[in-house]
Design goal:
Elements (H helix, E strand, L loop, with lengths): L1 E4 L16 H10 L4 E4 L5 H5 L4 H8 L5 H7 L5 H24 L1 E4 L20 H11 L6 E5 L6 H7 L5 E8 L12 E5 L5 H15 L6 E5 L17 H18 L2 E5 L8 H17 L2
Helix pairs in contact: 1-10, 5-6, 8-9, 9-10
The structure holds zinc ion.
Zinc ion binds next to loops.
């Protein structure tokens, strides 16, 4: 089994910035020996243009994002950041190709679900899942795709990409009062109140998965953000580490039931305890591998 990593790529963050750069290395380290770690390959502009708008890519590859756009992104738009984003999204495309070939693909990055066709926001420059689906379509894959987005924030960008696409179903389970303030319409949205813990979360999730999997997907993208954990800086939910594992297992069981291929992308995770963030992401990938 292989997994794509961006852990080797540096990022120039301002001091004290909350972006959890540590976790990419931490998760790769923890999975050593269990997976073959491959550097995520970069995307080129042609692949990005299958999903994103040309005028947006002109800015990204030309003069760069404006100050206002960088503020919305929440990260300084630097050459290092762009370079890293190209590799992170490339990892999801590579993982999607692995999934079609062998049933499972793993990107130890990605899940940048706040990127829209024409703009960046919320740490998301490119919508890696949207680009991956576009690349697969170009390669001739016509199967039904389900996006299971369990990051604590709504997958607003992803929802917009697929709103008018009958071949892709989007499910987002998130904290309703959380960022983004203005939600988009996924095919199925489950907005939870603040502070929801394991039992209520898992019960609500089971029902949502039941409904979403009626779509009978042939390929599932799982955004396994762990900002659902209690004590996350941005998540507003209150799952335990064990609750997150049970969450993952619910998804994996459904994927197995319908016999779909699976791509796991990392998503958010900003716990006040960095070790917990790494442990939660790691257990997701381990669980996915053990289900294979
Ligand atoms: Zn999130």
């Amino acid at each position: 089994m292989r997994a794509y990593t961006t852990a080797h790529l540096p990022l120039d963050l301002p001091p004290g910035h909350p972006f959890p750069i540590y976790k990419y290395q931490g998760v790769a380290e923890a999975l050593k020996g269990l997976v073959e770690l491959l550097p995520a390959p970069p995307l080129d502009r042609e692949a990005l243009a299958l999903a994103h708008e040309e005028a947006y890519l002109d800015r990204v590859f030309g003069e760069g994002l404006s100050r206002a756009e960088s503020l919305r992104l929440g990260l300084p738009f630097t050459p290092l950041f762009l370079h890293r984003a190209l590799h992170a999204a490339g990892g999801t495309v590579a993982a999607a190709l692995d999934a079609l070939a062998g049933g499972l693909g793993l990107n130890l990055a990605g899940g940048t679900h706040h990127a829209y066709p024409d703009r960046a926001e919320g740490y998301s420059l490119f919508n890696d899942v949207a680009v991956a689906v576009a690349v697969l379509r170009q390669k001739g894959f016509q199967g039904r795709v389900l996006v299971v987005d369990l990051d604590a924030h709504q997958g607003n960008g992803t929802a917009v990409f697929f709103q008018r696409d009958p071949t892709v179903y989007t499910l987002s389970v998130h904290a309703e009062r959380n960022y983004p303030l203005k939600k988009e319409r996924s095919h199925l949205d489950l907005g939870l109140p603040d502070g929801v813990g394991d039992a209520a979360y898992l019960e609500a999730l089971s029902r949502a998965l039941e409904e979403a999997f009626r779509f009978r997907p042939e390929l599932v993208f799982y955004n396994a953000g762990v900002d659902v954990l209690a004590n996350d800086r941005f998540g507003r939910l209150a799952l335990s580490l064990e609750g997150v594992l049970r969450r993952d297992l619910l998804v994996l069981k459904k994927v197995q039931e319908v016999g779909a291929a699976l791509v796991v992308v990392m998503g958010g995770g900003y716990n006040r305890d960095p070790d917990l963030t790494v442990a939660a992401h790691t257990q997701t990938y381990r669980a996915a591998i053990s289900f294979r």
